[in-house]
Amino acid sequence: MWVPQLSEFSQPMYLSIADALARDISNGVLSQGDRLPTLRELATTLKVTPGTISRAYSEAHRRGLVHGEVGRGTYVQSQAPSELPVSPVPTTLNLGQSQLLDLSIIKPYSETLEYWLRDALIGLAKSTDFARALDYAPDGGHPAHREAGAQFLRQWLPDAQWQQVVITAGAQHGLMVAMSALTNAGDLVLCEELCYPGIISLAHGLERRLGGVAMDDEGIIPEALRELCLREKPAMLVCVATCQNPTAAIMSQQRRAQIAALAEEFDFIILDDDIYGFLATDPSIKPLSAFAPERSVYLTSLSKSVMPALRIGYLYSPPKLLSRLTSMVRSSVWMPSPLTAQLASNVITEGLDKKLIRIQRNEAAARQAIAREIFAGFELKTQPYAYHVWLTLPEPWTSDEFTMLARANGVLVLSGTQFQAERSGMTRSVRLVLMSPTSQDELRFALTKLASLIDTDPRRFY
Ligand SMILES: Cc1ncc(COP(=O)(O)O)c(C=O)c1O
To answer: 277 φ, ψ to 5°?
Structure first.
Protein backbone atom coordinates (compact mmCIF):
# COMPACT_ATOMS: atom_id res chain seq x y z
CA MET A 1 0.00 0.00 0.00
CA TRP A 2 1.27 3.51 -0.85
CA VAL A 3 2.12 5.49 2.30
CA PRO A 4 3.16 9.12 1.79
CA GLN A 5 6.37 10.39 3.39
CA LEU A 6 5.18 13.66 4.84
CA SER A 7 7.54 16.59 5.10
CA GLU A 8 7.94 18.91 8.06
CA PHE A 9 6.63 21.69 5.89
CA SER A 10 4.11 23.77 7.86
CA GLN A 11 1.00 23.52 5.75
CA PRO A 12 -2.37 21.78 6.02
CA MET A 13 -2.07 17.98 6.17
CA TYR A 14 -4.15 17.41 3.04
CA LEU A 15 -1.74 19.55 0.99
CA SER A 16 1.26 17.65 2.36
CA ILE A 17 -0.36 14.40 1.23
CA ALA A 18 -1.10 15.83 -2.23
CA ASP A 19 2.50 17.11 -2.45
CA ALA A 20 3.87 13.69 -1.44
CA LEU A 21 1.71 12.11 -4.14
CA ALA A 22 3.08 14.50 -6.79
CA ARG A 23 6.62 13.80 -5.58
CA ASP A 24 6.19 10.03 -5.69
CA ILE A 25 4.72 10.20 -9.19
CA SER A 26 7.66 12.20 -10.48
CA ASN A 27 10.14 9.95 -8.59
CA GLY A 28 8.61 6.91 -10.24
CA VAL A 29 7.45 5.42 -6.91
CA LEU A 30 3.92 5.55 -8.33
CA SER A 31 3.08 4.92 -11.96
CA GLN A 32 0.19 5.56 -14.27
CA GLY A 33 -2.73 3.33 -13.30
CA ASP A 34 -1.57 2.47 -9.76
CA ARG A 35 -4.47 2.20 -7.32
CA LEU A 36 -4.19 4.40 -4.24
CA PRO A 37 -5.29 3.21 -0.78
CA THR A 38 -8.91 3.79 0.21
CA LEU A 39 -9.80 6.79 2.34
CA ARG A 40 -10.26 4.61 5.39
CA GLU A 41 -7.03 2.63 4.89
CA LEU A 42 -4.87 5.72 4.53
CA ALA A 43 -6.70 7.61 7.29
CA THR A 44 -6.03 4.73 9.72
CA THR A 45 -2.34 4.50 8.71
CA LEU A 46 -1.74 8.26 9.01
CA LYS A 47 -3.99 8.63 12.09
CA VAL A 48 -6.11 11.37 10.51
CA THR A 49 -9.79 11.54 9.60
CA PRO A 50 -11.08 10.09 6.31
CA GLY A 51 -12.20 13.67 5.52
CA THR A 52 -8.54 14.79 5.40
CA ILE A 53 -7.68 12.03 2.93
CA SER A 54 -10.75 12.89 0.90
CA ARG A 55 -9.56 16.54 0.68
CA ALA A 56 -6.06 15.35 -0.26
CA TYR A 57 -7.42 13.19 -3.07
CA SER A 58 -9.66 16.04 -4.27
CA GLU A 59 -6.62 18.32 -4.34
CA ALA A 60 -4.67 15.66 -6.29
CA HIS A 61 -7.62 15.35 -8.65
CA ARG A 62 -7.66 19.13 -9.13
CA ARG A 63 -3.96 19.02 -10.03
CA GLY A 64 -4.61 16.26 -12.57
CA LEU A 65 -2.59 13.67 -10.65
CA VAL A 66 -5.35 11.10 -10.10
CA HIS A 67 -8.71 10.05 -11.42
CA GLY A 68 -11.45 7.89 -9.98
CA GLU A 69 -14.95 7.73 -8.66
CA VAL A 70 -16.32 7.34 -5.18
CA GLY A 71 -16.56 3.63 -4.34
CA ARG A 72 -14.49 2.51 -7.35
CA GLY A 73 -11.05 3.60 -6.23
CA THR A 74 -8.57 6.35 -6.97
CA TYR A 75 -5.92 5.82 -9.65
CA VAL A 76 -2.70 7.62 -10.60
CA GLN A 77 -2.87 9.41 -13.91
CA SER A 78 -0.24 12.10 -14.03
CA GLN A 79 2.85 12.47 -16.16
CA ALA A 80 6.13 12.80 -14.30
CA PRO A 81 8.08 15.99 -15.06
CA SER A 82 10.73 13.84 -16.74
CA GLU A 83 8.15 13.05 -19.37
CA LEU A 84 7.53 16.69 -20.22
CA PRO A 85 7.85 17.30 -23.92
CA VAL A 86 11.31 18.48 -24.89
CA SER A 87 12.42 19.66 -28.28
CA PRO A 88 15.15 17.41 -29.63
CA VAL A 89 16.26 20.21 -31.95
CA PRO A 90 17.46 23.15 -29.86
CA THR A 91 17.03 25.72 -32.60
CA THR A 92 13.30 25.00 -32.87
CA LEU A 93 11.72 27.89 -31.01
CA ASN A 94 8.07 27.15 -31.54
CA LEU A 95 7.18 25.22 -28.37
CA GLY A 96 3.80 26.29 -27.01
CA GLN A 97 3.79 28.39 -23.85
CA SER A 98 1.96 25.70 -21.91
CA GLN A 99 4.80 23.26 -22.50
CA LEU A 100 7.40 25.53 -20.98
CA LEU A 101 8.84 25.31 -17.49
CA ASP A 102 8.74 28.94 -16.47
CA LEU A 103 11.70 30.17 -14.41
CA SER A 104 11.28 33.74 -15.57
CA ILE A 105 8.81 35.41 -13.19
CA ILE A 106 9.60 36.20 -9.57
CA LYS A 107 6.58 35.18 -7.58
CA PRO A 108 5.74 33.36 -4.37
CA TYR A 109 5.38 29.61 -4.35
CA SER A 110 1.67 29.18 -4.74
CA GLU A 111 0.74 25.67 -3.67
CA THR A 112 -0.78 26.69 -0.35
CA LEU A 113 -2.11 30.11 -1.30
CA GLU A 114 -5.50 28.91 -2.42
CA TYR A 115 -6.08 27.24 0.92
CA TRP A 116 -5.17 30.31 2.96
CA LEU A 117 -6.81 32.90 0.75
CA ARG A 118 -10.10 31.11 0.24
CA ASP A 119 -10.74 31.57 3.96
CA ALA A 120 -9.65 35.21 3.77
CA LEU A 121 -12.09 35.80 0.89
CA ILE A 122 -14.97 34.18 2.77
CA GLY A 123 -13.99 36.22 5.85
CA LEU A 124 -14.07 39.40 3.75
CA ALA A 125 -17.60 38.74 2.54
CA LYS A 126 -18.80 38.10 6.10
CA SER A 127 -16.92 40.92 7.79
CA THR A 128 -18.57 44.06 9.11
CA ASP A 129 -15.95 46.07 7.18
CA PHE A 130 -17.29 44.83 3.87
CA ALA A 131 -19.46 47.90 3.27
CA ARG A 132 -16.46 50.23 3.60
CA ALA A 133 -14.76 48.36 0.78
CA LEU A 134 -17.58 48.99 -1.69
CA ASP A 135 -17.28 52.77 -1.97
CA TYR A 136 -14.69 55.29 -3.19
CA ALA A 137 -11.81 55.81 -0.78
CA PRO A 138 -10.26 59.10 0.36
CA ASP A 139 -6.85 60.18 -1.06
CA GLY A 140 -4.09 57.82 0.04
CA GLY A 141 -6.64 55.12 0.91
CA HIS A 142 -9.07 54.46 3.78
CA PRO A 143 -7.42 55.25 7.13
CA ALA A 144 -8.10 51.65 8.25
CA HIS A 145 -6.40 50.28 5.12
CA ARG A 146 -3.47 52.65 5.62
CA GLU A 147 -3.20 51.57 9.26
CA ALA A 148 -3.08 47.92 8.11
CA GLY A 149 -0.36 48.99 5.65
CA ALA A 150 1.54 50.66 8.50
CA GLN A 151 1.22 47.43 10.49
CA PHE A 152 2.74 45.52 7.55
CA LEU A 153 5.52 48.11 7.18
CA ARG A 154 6.38 48.05 10.90
CA GLN A 155 8.14 44.72 10.25
CA TRP A 156 10.86 46.85 8.57
CA LEU A 157 10.06 50.42 9.69
CA PRO A 158 9.15 50.00 13.37
CA ASP A 159 7.86 53.56 13.79
CA ALA A 160 5.64 53.64 10.68
CA GLN A 161 2.56 55.90 11.08
CA TRP A 162 -0.55 55.33 8.99
CA GLN A 163 -0.70 59.04 8.02
CA GLN A 164 2.49 58.57 5.95
CA VAL A 165 1.29 55.45 4.12
CA VAL A 166 -0.05 55.70 0.56
CA ILE A 167 -1.81 52.67 -0.91
CA THR A 168 -0.83 51.77 -4.48
CA ALA A 169 -1.93 49.12 -6.96
CA GLY A 170 1.24 47.07 -6.46
CA ALA A 171 4.93 48.02 -6.43
CA GLN A 172 5.15 48.77 -10.16
CA HIS A 173 2.41 51.35 -9.67
CA GLY A 174 4.30 52.64 -6.61
CA LEU A 175 7.42 53.11 -8.76
CA MET A 176 5.38 54.92 -11.37
CA VAL A 177 3.68 57.18 -8.80
CA ALA A 178 6.92 58.12 -7.04
CA MET A 179 8.97 58.64 -10.20
CA SER A 180 6.34 60.73 -11.94
CA ALA A 181 5.39 62.75 -8.84
CA LEU A 182 8.92 63.50 -7.63
CA THR A 183 10.91 63.96 -10.86
CA ASN A 184 10.33 65.78 -14.15
CA ALA A 185 10.65 64.80 -17.81
CA GLY A 186 14.32 65.00 -18.85
CA ASP A 187 15.61 64.52 -15.27
CA LEU A 188 18.42 62.10 -14.58
CA VAL A 189 17.19 59.07 -12.62
CA LEU A 190 19.82 56.60 -11.43
CA CYS A 191 19.47 52.93 -10.62
CA GLU A 192 21.67 49.83 -10.38
CA GLU A 193 23.47 49.12 -13.68
CA LEU A 194 21.64 45.78 -13.71
CA CYS A 195 18.10 46.38 -12.55
CA TYR A 196 14.49 45.22 -12.60
CA PRO A 197 13.22 45.72 -16.21
CA GLY A 198 10.07 47.47 -14.89
CA ILE A 199 12.30 50.39 -13.84
CA ILE A 200 13.84 50.62 -17.33
CA SER A 201 10.51 50.63 -19.16
CA LEU A 202 9.02 53.09 -16.67
CA ALA A 203 11.88 55.61 -16.93
CA HIS A 204 11.75 55.46 -20.71
CA GLY A 205 7.95 55.73 -20.76
CA LEU A 206 8.11 58.81 -18.51
CA GLU A 207 10.97 60.31 -20.54
CA ARG A 208 13.44 60.36 -17.66
CA ARG A 209 17.09 59.80 -18.54
CA LEU A 210 18.09 56.55 -16.87
CA GLY A 211 21.67 56.07 -15.70
CA GLY A 212 23.06 52.80 -14.36
CA VAL A 213 25.46 52.90 -11.39
CA ALA A 214 28.28 50.33 -11.26
CA MET A 215 27.79 47.51 -8.76
CA ASP A 216 29.77 44.98 -6.75
CA ASP A 217 28.61 42.14 -4.52
CA GLU A 218 26.75 44.60 -2.26
CA GLY A 219 24.97 46.46 -5.05
CA ILE A 220 25.64 50.12 -5.91
CA ILE A 221 29.24 51.22 -5.35
CA PRO A 222 29.30 54.57 -3.45
CA GLU A 223 32.42 55.84 -5.28
CA ALA A 224 30.78 55.20 -8.66
CA LEU A 225 27.64 57.01 -7.50
CA ARG A 226 29.69 59.97 -6.25
CA GLU A 227 31.49 60.20 -9.59
CA LEU A 228 28.20 60.33 -11.47
CA CYS A 229 26.81 62.97 -9.07
CA LEU A 230 29.88 65.15 -9.59
CA ARG A 231 29.15 65.14 -13.32
CA GLU A 232 25.42 65.87 -13.02
CA LYS A 233 22.99 66.04 -10.11
CA PRO A 234 20.44 63.22 -10.31
CA ALA A 235 16.84 63.86 -9.27
CA MET A 236 16.35 60.37 -7.88
CA LEU A 237 18.10 57.10 -7.14
CA VAL A 238 15.95 53.96 -7.39
CA CYS A 239 17.58 51.22 -5.38
CA VAL A 240 16.72 47.62 -4.43
CA ALA A 241 19.01 47.11 -1.44
CA THR A 242 17.85 43.64 -0.37
CA CYS A 243 17.87 40.59 -2.67
CA GLN A 244 18.41 42.88 -5.62
CA ASN A 245 16.72 41.97 -8.88
CA PRO A 246 18.55 40.39 -10.74
CA THR A 247 21.86 39.95 -8.83
CA ALA A 248 20.35 39.05 -5.41
CA ALA A 249 22.91 41.38 -3.78
CA ILE A 250 22.22 42.58 -0.25
CA MET A 251 23.69 45.92 0.79
CA SER A 252 25.47 46.06 4.16
CA GLN A 253 24.40 48.52 6.84
CA GLN A 254 27.57 50.56 6.25
CA ARG A 255 26.97 50.76 2.48
CA ARG A 256 23.38 51.92 3.08
CA ALA A 257 24.64 54.72 5.32
CA GLN A 258 27.15 55.77 2.61
CA ILE A 259 24.46 55.90 -0.09
CA ALA A 260 22.16 57.91 2.20
CA ALA A 261 25.00 60.36 2.94
CA LEU A 262 25.48 60.90 -0.81
CA ALA A 263 21.75 61.60 -1.18
CA GLU A 264 22.13 64.34 1.47
CA GLU A 265 25.30 65.74 -0.12
CA PHE A 266 23.97 65.84 -3.68
CA ASP A 267 20.34 66.52 -2.76
CA PHE A 268 18.51 63.70 -4.52
CA ILE A 269 15.55 61.54 -3.51
CA ILE A 270 15.98 57.85 -2.75
CA LEU A 271 13.25 55.52 -3.95
CA ASP A 272 13.89 52.52 -1.73
CA ASP A 273 12.25 49.56 -3.48
CA ASP A 274 12.21 47.03 -0.64
CA ILE A 275 9.87 44.52 -2.24
CA TYR A 276 12.26 41.68 -1.23
CA GLY A 277 13.00 43.09 2.25
CA PHE A 278 11.14 40.17 3.83
CA LEU A 279 13.78 37.82 2.39
CA ALA A 280 16.66 39.50 4.25
CA THR A 281 19.32 37.24 5.72
CA ASP A 282 20.04 39.61 8.63
CA PRO A 283 16.75 41.28 9.65
CA SER A 284 18.62 43.71 11.93
CA ILE A 285 19.89 45.64 8.87
CA LYS A 286 17.59 48.65 8.46
CA PRO A 287 16.03 49.61 5.10
CA LEU A 288 18.04 52.10 3.04
CA SER A 289 15.38 54.80 3.50
CA ALA A 290 15.77 54.64 7.28
CA PHE A 291 19.21 56.26 6.84
CA ALA A 292 17.75 59.35 5.15
CA PRO A 293 14.02 59.33 6.02
CA GLU A 294 13.39 62.97 5.07
CA ARG A 295 14.48 62.46 1.45
CA SER A 296 13.45 58.82 0.91
CA VAL A 297 10.29 57.10 -0.18
CA TYR A 298 10.02 53.49 0.92
CA LEU A 299 8.15 51.11 -1.38
CA THR A 300 6.90 47.57 -1.05
CA SER A 301 3.93 45.42 -2.03
CA LEU A 302 2.22 42.18 -1.11
CA SER A 303 3.00 40.63 -4.50
CA LYS A 304 6.04 38.60 -3.49
CA SER A 305 5.21 37.87 0.13
CA VAL A 306 1.47 37.16 -0.13
CA MET A 307 0.13 37.03 -3.69
CA PRO A 308 0.71 39.00 -6.91
CA ALA A 309 -2.98 39.15 -7.83
CA LEU A 310 -3.89 41.34 -4.85
CA ARG A 311 -2.15 44.29 -6.59
CA ILE A 312 -1.74 46.15 -3.33
CA GLY A 313 1.46 48.01 -2.48
CA TYR A 314 2.48 50.68 0.02
CA LEU A 315 4.57 53.83 -0.25
CA TYR A 316 5.93 55.32 2.97
CA SER A 317 6.72 58.98 2.54
CA PRO A 318 8.07 61.88 4.58
CA PRO A 319 5.14 64.26 5.29
CA LYS A 320 6.45 66.93 2.92
CA LEU A 321 6.19 64.64 -0.17
CA LEU A 322 2.91 63.00 0.75
CA SER A 323 0.44 65.17 -1.15
CA ARG A 324 2.42 64.89 -4.40
CA LEU A 325 2.22 61.11 -4.12
CA THR A 326 -1.49 60.95 -3.26
CA SER A 327 -2.29 63.33 -6.15
CA MET A 328 -0.39 61.10 -8.54
CA VAL A 329 -2.28 58.01 -7.34
CA ARG A 330 -5.49 59.94 -8.03
CA SER A 331 -4.31 61.00 -11.50
CA SER A 332 -3.18 57.51 -12.45
CA VAL A 333 -5.86 55.11 -11.13
CA TRP A 334 -8.10 57.34 -8.96
CA MET A 335 -7.56 54.76 -6.22
CA PRO A 336 -6.40 51.15 -5.97
CA SER A 337 -9.42 48.91 -5.55
CA PRO A 338 -10.75 49.41 -1.98
CA LEU A 339 -12.12 45.88 -2.15
CA THR A 340 -8.67 44.32 -2.54
CA ALA A 341 -7.22 46.88 -0.10
CA GLN A 342 -9.74 45.54 2.43
CA LEU A 343 -8.75 41.95 1.67
CA ALA A 344 -5.08 42.90 2.03
CA SER A 345 -5.88 44.62 5.34
CA ASN A 346 -7.64 41.49 6.64
CA VAL A 347 -4.67 39.35 5.62
CA ILE A 348 -2.39 41.69 7.60
CA THR A 349 -4.54 42.23 10.69
CA GLU A 350 -5.13 38.49 11.00
CA GLY A 351 -1.38 37.82 10.83
CA LEU A 352 -1.63 35.74 7.66
CA ASP A 353 1.08 37.84 5.99
CA LYS A 354 3.62 36.79 8.63
CA LYS A 355 2.59 33.15 8.32
CA LEU A 356 2.94 33.26 4.51
CA ILE A 357 6.32 35.00 4.79
CA ARG A 358 7.53 32.15 7.03
CA ILE A 359 6.23 29.56 4.56
CA GLN A 360 7.81 31.34 1.58
CA ARG A 361 11.18 31.78 3.31
CA ASN A 362 11.27 28.05 4.19
CA GLU A 363 10.36 27.08 0.67
CA ALA A 364 12.94 29.48 -0.81
CA ALA A 365 15.66 28.06 1.47
CA ALA A 366 14.83 24.50 0.33
CA ARG A 367 14.91 25.56 -3.33
CA GLN A 368 18.18 27.42 -2.83
CA ALA A 369 19.71 24.17 -1.55
CA ILE A 370 18.60 22.42 -4.77
CA ALA A 371 20.12 25.19 -6.92
CA ARG A 372 23.41 25.14 -4.98
CA GLU A 373 23.63 21.38 -5.36
CA ILE A 374 22.94 21.38 -9.12
CA PHE A 375 25.13 24.39 -9.89
CA ALA A 376 28.02 23.47 -7.58
CA GLY A 377 31.15 24.66 -9.34
CA PHE A 378 29.33 27.31 -11.36
CA GLU A 379 29.50 31.04 -10.69
CA LEU A 380 26.27 31.56 -8.79
CA LYS A 381 25.23 34.71 -6.92
CA THR A 382 22.38 34.38 -4.49
CA GLN A 383 21.20 34.63 -0.87
CA PRO A 384 19.84 31.97 1.50
CA TYR A 385 16.19 33.10 1.15
CA ALA A 386 16.18 34.75 -2.27
CA TYR A 387 13.53 33.69 -4.78
CA HIS A 388 16.06 33.84 -7.63
CA VAL A 389 19.71 33.23 -8.50
CA TRP A 390 22.08 35.04 -10.84
CA LEU A 391 24.09 32.52 -12.80
CA THR A 392 27.15 33.48 -14.83
CA LEU A 393 27.70 31.07 -17.69
CA PRO A 394 31.14 29.79 -18.60
CA GLU A 395 32.83 30.89 -21.86
CA PRO A 396 31.90 30.81 -24.71
CA TRP A 397 28.20 31.18 -23.81
CA THR A 398 26.39 34.49 -24.11
CA SER A 399 23.25 34.97 -22.06
CA ASP A 400 21.03 35.67 -25.10
CA GLU A 401 22.21 32.51 -26.82
CA PHE A 402 21.67 30.44 -23.68
CA THR A 403 18.21 31.91 -23.08
CA MET A 404 17.16 30.98 -26.61
CA LEU A 405 18.47 27.44 -26.36
CA ALA A 406 16.92 26.98 -22.91
CA ARG A 407 13.59 28.05 -24.34
CA ALA A 408 13.95 25.63 -27.22
CA ASN A 409 14.50 22.96 -24.58
CA GLY A 410 11.36 23.91 -22.72
CA VAL A 411 12.75 26.18 -19.96
CA LEU A 412 12.05 29.89 -19.79
CA VAL A 413 14.70 32.12 -18.14
CA LEU A 414 15.67 35.79 -18.53
CA SER A 415 18.90 36.89 -20.17
CA GLY A 416 21.23 39.37 -18.46
CA THR A 417 20.82 41.84 -21.31
CA GLN A 418 17.20 42.46 -20.30
CA PHE A 419 18.38 43.92 -16.99
CA GLN A 420 20.90 46.41 -18.37
CA ALA A 421 19.85 49.92 -17.34
CA GLU A 422 21.90 51.23 -20.26
CA ARG A 423 22.25 48.89 -23.20
CA SER A 424 25.90 47.91 -23.11
CA GLY A 425 26.48 44.80 -25.16
CA MET A 426 26.37 41.13 -24.36
CA THR A 427 26.42 39.51 -20.93
CA ARG A 428 27.13 35.98 -19.74
CA SER A 429 24.61 35.95 -16.87
CA VAL A 430 21.04 34.74 -16.63
CA ARG A 431 18.39 35.10 -13.92
CA LEU A 432 16.74 31.89 -12.81
CA VAL A 433 13.66 32.09 -10.60
CA LEU A 434 13.49 29.17 -8.19
CA MET A 435 9.99 29.78 -6.83
CA SER A 436 7.95 29.80 -10.02
CA PRO A 437 7.99 26.03 -10.74
CA THR A 438 5.01 24.42 -9.06
CA SER A 439 7.10 21.92 -7.08
CA GLN A 440 10.65 21.28 -5.95
CA ASP A 441 10.75 18.28 -8.28
CA GLU A 442 9.81 20.40 -11.23
CA LEU A 443 12.52 22.89 -10.23
CA ARG A 444 15.12 20.13 -9.95
CA PHE A 445 14.13 18.85 -13.37
CA ALA A 446 14.40 22.30 -14.95
CA LEU A 447 17.73 23.15 -13.29
CA THR A 448 19.24 19.80 -14.20
CA LYS A 449 18.21 20.40 -17.78
CA LEU A 450 19.82 23.85 -17.73
CA ALA A 451 23.02 22.50 -16.15
CA SER A 452 23.33 19.86 -18.85
CA LEU A 453 22.72 22.48 -21.51
CA ILE A 454 25.56 24.59 -20.11
CA ASP A 455 27.84 21.60 -20.50
CA THR A 456 27.32 21.58 -24.25
CA ASP A 457 29.25 23.86 -26.59
CA PRO A 458 26.90 26.53 -28.01
CA ARG A 459 29.01 26.74 -31.18
CA ARG A 460 27.67 23.31 -32.12
CA PHE A 461 24.32 24.97 -32.81
CA TYR A 462 25.54 27.78 -35.07
C1 LIG B 1 12.40 45.15 -7.77
C2 LIG B 1 10.96 45.06 -8.15
N3 LIG B 1 10.16 46.12 -7.94
C4 LIG B 1 8.85 46.10 -8.26
C5 LIG B 1 8.27 44.98 -8.81
C6 LIG B 1 6.80 45.01 -9.18
O7 LIG B 1 6.02 44.35 -8.21
P8 LIG B 1 4.42 44.33 -8.23
O9 LIG B 1 4.01 42.99 -8.76
O10 LIG B 1 3.99 44.53 -6.80
O11 LIG B 1 3.96 45.44 -9.10
C12 LIG B 1 9.06 43.85 -9.04
C13 LIG B 1 8.48 42.65 -9.65
O14 LIG B 1 9.14 41.71 -10.03
C15 LIG B 1 10.43 43.89 -8.69
O16 LIG B 1 11.25 42.84 -8.88
So the answer is: -60, -30
